[in-house]
Design brief:
It is a single chain. The protein has 355 residues and is mainly alpha-helical. It folds into three domains: 32 residues, no CATH class; 29 residues, no CATH class; 224 residues, MetI-like (MetI-like fold). Helices cover 67% and strands 9% of the residues. It is built from 15 helices and four strands. A two-stranded antiparallel sheet has the order 1-4. Helix 5 runs parallel beside helix 9, helix 12 runs antiparallel to helix 15 and helix 14 packs antiparallel against helix 15. The longest helix is centred in the middle third of the chain and has 33 residues. The chain starts with a helix and ends with a helix.
């Protein structure tokens, strides 16, 4: 292929990647190492307070006021702060203090058990915003990933085994949760489990009593994880179902002739054939799960189930700190890269025939 033809094909994609990915990422990195503030100065302000008999009392106070430029606008100072924003977000000092804290005795001097010490350590570490968000983000990613793989594979095998005329409706019904946008899907789960909503009312009518699903961390985290499994399983299903159509039928028929059971055919022929697709699903889902945001926002559960993406959103919108939010976003990207390294390394080795 001529270089001119190659550039004609690749050029638009490269320009789009540079404009939509590289340039914004460079901008975020730049912001994460800088900060700005309004320059202030201490000035004396005199005020007169009226007293009885027509007398007045003059008071002088020293107060900070912004420095104004020649146009009467506040002067903003832009400075390079190095890793200060990262330190503020991750709070490594707080983490070290939480880990090194003495928990050998209780407040009244009684010795603590190993479980009590571990509970105290967990509580102190997760009380730090960044590490609490990281804890639930990893928990969500590591629980939902194997669930969607197993359920997606089972659904793919099930749909592939039914008669041809019913496969279309089954595929459509299975894909519905993935078609729904994350915000709408999160809201649907949230509304179902409200205190007086459908699920709680049905359980109460069946004699289970009044159940409050949104009252504590365990129930809210469980609902968010269930939402993630429900929403993403169709993605795994459609990828694996497509992969099942490429399984060599000659190998399956030969295995049947040799007396292989249904489970043995799945274990030794189908699953190895789909290994690359499993890796692909893991890569895509881990990237998506590490950026979980919508259900945390919809459930309003940041006290019980925070996430790194929601932490960035909170810093940007409620603290109004662009520079700290940029540092939080960069830490999220770094975390995704670290999380994907083992999968990428394994995939590379398999492609090279080393593993």
């Amino acid at each position: 292929m001529k270089i001119k033809t190659f550039l004609a094909f690749v050029g638009p994609s490269v320009l789009a990647m540079v404009g939509l990915i590289a340039v914004p990422l460079i901008g975020v990195v730049y912001l994460s190492f800088h900060s700005s503030y309004v320059k202030t100065e201490i000035v004396e302000v005199k005020s007169s307070v009226p007293l009885f008999g027509g007398l007045t009392k003059t008071t002088v106070e020293k107060v900070p006021q912004p420095v104004l430029d020649e146009n009467g606008e506040p002067v903003k100072v832009w400075e390079y702060v190095g890793g200060r924003n990262f330190d503020t977000v991750a709070d490594p000092g707080g983490l070290v203090a939480a880990v090194s804290k003495d928990r050998s005795t209780t407040e009244d001097g009684q010795p603590t058990s190993f479980r009590q010490r571990m509970d105290g350590l967990y509580r102190d570490v997760t009380d730090i915003d960044f590490w609490g968000a990281l804890e639930f983000t990893l928990l969500y990613a590591f629980i939902t990933t194997p669930c969607i793989l197993v359920l997606g594979f089972l659904l793919a095998v099930l749909v592939n085994s039914v008669v041809q005329w019913i496969r279309g409706p089954l595929i459509f019904a299975t894909l519905l949760p993935f078609i729904i946008t994350p915000v709408v899907g999160s809201l649907s789960i949230y509304w179902l489990f409200l205190d007086n909503a459908l699920v709680a009312s049905l359980l109460e009518q069946f004699g289970a009593g009044k159940i409050y699903f949104l009252k504590d961390a365990i129930s809210i985290r469980t609902l968010i994880v269930l939402y993630g499994v429900w929403h993403v399983t169709p993605f795994a299903f459609v990828i694996l179902y497509a992969g099942l159509q490429t399984v060599p039928q000659d190998a399956l028929q030969a295995a049947m002739v040799d007396g292989a059971t249904y489970w043995q055919r799945i274990r030794y022929i189908i699953i190895p054939h789909l290994r690359a697709l499993f890796s692909f699903i893991i890569l895509i889902h881990l990237m998506d799960a590490y950026r979980i945001f919508e259900p945390v926002l919809v459930f309003g559960s940041n006290l019980f189930a925070n996430s790194l993406q929601y932490l960035t959103y909170y810093i940007l919108n409620f603290e109004d700190n662009y520079y700290k939010a940029a540092a939080s976003a960069i830490l999220t990207v770094i975390g995704i890269c670290i999380l994907l390294l083992p999968v990428l390394r394994r995939t590379y080795r398999e492609q090279k025939g080393v593993a």
